Amino acid sequence: MKIMKGIRILFVLVALSSGLFAQSFLVRTFEENDGLINSAVNDIAQDFAGRMWFCTRNGISVYDGATWSSFTTTNGLSTQAVTQIQIDTRGSMWTIGMYPTWPLTRFDGKAWTSFPFPQVDVPLYNCTGLAVRSESRGIRVAVGTTKSGVFIFDGVRWKVVSKTQGLAGNTVRDIAVFEDGFLAATNEGLSWVGENSVENRWEKTDPLLHEDIRGVTVETAPDGDKIWVVGSTWLGAVQGGRFEVVIRENPLRFTETSQTAKLLPDRKGGLFYGNTTGVYYYDRTSGSSRPLGIREGLIAEGTTSLLLDRESNIWIGGLRGVSRISSRRFFNYRRAQGLLEDEVTAIQTFGDGAVAFAHNLGLSVWNGTEFRHIVLDRKPNIADGEIRILDLAADDDGGLWLAAAAQGLGRLGRDSRLRWYDFPDGRTEPVTSVVFDQNRRLWIARNNSLFQLQNGRPVEVFPGQFRGGYIRKIVASRGGLIFVATGNRGLFRWDGNAWAHFSDETDSGAANVYSVYVDSNGRTLVGTFSGLRQIAGDRLNPFSENGFEIRRPVFLILEDKAGRLWFGTDNGVIRWDGKTRRDFSKAEGLSGREINRSAGMIDALGRVWIGTNNGVSCYRENFDLGPDDVPPPMLSLTGLDINGKATDPSKELVLGYRENNIVFYFLGTSFIDENALRFESFLDGFEKTWGPEYTAADRRIRYTNLPPGTYVFNIRAKNALGTRSDPIFSPVIRIRNPFWLQWWFILAALLLGGGLILSVGLAVTQHRQAERLEALVLDRTAQIQASLREKEILLKEVHHRVKNNLQIISSLLFLQSRRITDPGLLALFQGTISRVRAMALVHESLYQSDLLTSIVMEDYLRKLVHHLLEIYDIRKEPVVADIRAAGISLPLETAITYGLIVNELVSNALKHAFPDNRKGVIKITLARTALDAAGEPAQKREIILTVSDNGVGIPEEMKKGKPESLGLRLTQNLASQLDGTIDVRSDSGTVFRIVFPE
Question: Across the chain, what does the average pLDDT equal?
Answer without folding.
Answer: 87
